[in-house]
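Q: For a teaching handout, I want to show students what a protein-ligand complex looks like in token form. Below are the inputs, and the small molecule is magnesium ion. Please produce the holo structure.
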Amino acid sequence: MRVFKFGGASVKDAAGVENVVSVLQKVGHKNTLVVVSAMGKTTNALEVVIEQYRDKNPELSNSIKTLKDAHTGILTDLFKSEQHPIFAKISAIFDDLKTFLERNKSPKYDYIYDQVVSYGEIISTTILSEFLTLKGFDNDWLDARTLVKTNSTYRDAKVDWEATQQAISSTVNKQNLSITQGFIGADTNNFTTTLGREGSDYSAAIFAYCLNAESVSIWKDVDGVLNGDPRVFKNTKLLNQISYEEAIELAFYGASVIHPKTLQPLQQKEIPLYVKSFINPENVGTSVSKGQTLEPFIPCFIVKKNQVLISLSSLDFSFIVEENISEIFSLFHKYQVKVDLIQNTAISFSVCVNNKFGHLQDLIAELRAKFDVSFEENVSLYTIRHFDQAAAEGLEKDKTILLKQLGTETYQIVTKQ
Ligand code: ADP
Ligand code: ASP
Ligand code: MG
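A: Here is the structure, written as tokens, with magnesium ion included.
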């Protein structure tokens, strides 16, 4: 059986949903489980709803209405007649969301976040499943919250593999076409959890692992994995083959075309991952599998924007040693700050971090009690895997470099944005 994943860009409007159906028609739809993300930028819009709810912003109900209108517009394009039961179904899902917000008593932001943000995927999969039925494709709509079992770390939930394996193998009918949500799961209390932003690729890998799938295909708006994000770098080239190890490195350094958590479960069972174009589904795309490291073997460029460069030095010129470093790292962990690069000298320590959970100020305050701390926000971290001199020189041109680090395979610079 195969697992497919269609991301937000592939279902951003009615034409996108129709295209998903046509891809399934071309490449077959039996023995297939399809993982789907929220439509277009719905997750970002729901994040705004959550912030407005927290801040008691009177714009809240308008924001929900705008989101509902956008989905209803897509329904009108797809189903034409407003008599179709999908209109009432989607309306009821939005009512559910409003009821949750009215009744919620929990002050826990991350918990509220997951209960609300998950509506994006519930809505998109409901629409796709009904549309497939309309087009004559029998399918099972599956609620991923009954299948992907996690702990209760809201917004960054960890999978309980045993419970997930059990639920997936006893529920999914491998012969059929199944439609389910990426990104979401549930904890032991059946509260919704999420696997982290952009986590739908990872969901596809979880399903593939538990189903012993023959392959996973993630369908993208690019031809496959290129040697750089085409929105950022010029003259990018398609990578035909990447080994699991190399793909893990690329994703870890920030090649956002594959979510970094996706590869480990696939590698364990040697399930190949195909990254393919939903615009040209007949093209081969990129294969991530056991085999050659990188074909063609060329430098790969990666950028992570909106990073923070933190520099610490001891207050009394004493060395920064293991003891301080372990203390510093436990603070990063406490404030959910993800470290992307480390550089240390005898009395100073620099890290490039990601502030996606928004706890930077609290972290800095606590660090200042023990260290001399300076930090710069909005910096970019550039990485070149398999760099050569020409690649490094080309990248450095016109940039203000704050920090540079060279390894045997990897070149990294932190620059002003
Ligand atoms: P999805 O719709 O599945 O969420 P994403 O937007 O997350 O898709 O991923 C596709 C985008 O990833 C592309 O449009 C491209 O801009 C970006 N991207 C970043 N790095 C790469 C890369 N190395 N190769 C191809 N695309 C990349
Ligand atoms: N919808 C979620 C997000 O935008 C998950 C995903 O698309 O992978 O982060
Ligand atoms: Mg995405």
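A: Two things your students might notice: The pocket of adenosine-5'-diphosphate (ligand 1) is lined by residues 7-10, 37, 198, 220-222, 225-226, 228-231, 255-257 (CB under 6 Å). Residues 165 and 316 are 53 Å apart (CA to CA).
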